[in-house]
UniProtKB/TrEMBL annotation:
Residues 210-237 are annotated as: Disordered. It comes from the Bacteria. This is Phytanoyl-CoA dioxygenase. Pfam families: PhyH. One of its GO terms (molecular function) is iron ion binding.
Length: 237
């Protein structure tokens, strides 16, 4: 059924309770904190390509089932990003839309973004803020914004008024959000003593990815048979 506003309805997002247990999420977070604390790593790109924990997470049955309900049985991961916000660290991710950047353009009818909390995420430690309904404006012009430290999605600048706050999305460890890939969202600094770890995943159906340079997309199929004609585990380059 066509839904005005897109796959996720008028608001453009939905909560995803319990894609795993809080204990499971916190155990993964503790391992990641131990691995990355010394270097204070803020971003790990595409952990689903080589880390077992992320390969399991992108296939978590409740998560995958919810994604399939939205985009169909053939699902691939286009991209993942682990963001680690250390206590009292100013690691902000500016306003952006997940479905557009210098590299890719995602069809909002065949793609969905998931943001998964590995720790509890609230206002103090830098949870996501969203602008409900912003997906209805479609993709906006974007460009790099001086002074932003995490190069993810792209800040929108002029099209989002400077004083736009958005709605903070507190999410407990083991739960998450599903978002329209055009939904404007961001996250602010961690001003607490608690680390905040979250995994962003872009899921796509066949044909939903356009590469800006005309190349074939590099995808990791996680369900369905529609990918079988493509050789190897990863499709594309
Ligand atoms: O985890 C965050 O703070 C933001 C991540 C995000 O918005 C993204 O990866 O698209």
């Amino acid at each position: 059924m066509a839904v005005s506003g897109g796959l996720l309805g008028a608001a453009g997002y939905r909560s995803l309770p319990s894609w795993c247990t809080p204990a499971y999420a916190r155990a993964r977070a503790a391992e990641l904190v131990a691995a990355h604390q010394a270097a204070r790593t803020e971003v790990v790109r595409n952990p689903h390509r080589n880390a077992e924990w992320a390969q399991a997470v992108v296939r978590a049955p409740r998560l995958l089932g919810a994604v399939q309900d939205l985009i169909g049985r053939d699902v691939a991961v286009e991209n993942t990003l682990l963001v680690l916000k250390w206590p009292y660290q100013n690691c902000e991710v500016p306003w952006h839309q997940d479905g557009i950047n210098d590299r890719v353009l995602l069809d909002p009818k065949g793609s969905v973004a998931a943001w998964l909390a590995l720790t509890d995420a609230g206002r103090a430690n830098g949870c996501l803020h969203v602008i409900p309904g912003s997906q209805r404006g479609g993709y906006l012009p974007y460009g790099p914004e001086p002074g932003t430290r995490v190069q993810r999605g792209r800040p929108i600048g002029a099209r989002v008024a400077k004083d736009t706050w958005g709605v903070p999305m507190a999410v407990a460890a083991g739960s998450g959000l599903l978002m329209d890939v055009r939904l404007l969202h961001r996250s602010l600094a961690n001003v607490s003593e608690k680390a905040r770890l979250g995994l962003n995943i872009r899921y796509v159906a066949p044909g939903a990815v356009t590469m800006r340079d005309g190349s074939s997309p590099s995808l990791d199929p996680v369900s369905g048979t529609g990918w079988q004609s493509m050789k190897g585990r990863r499709t594309g380059s």
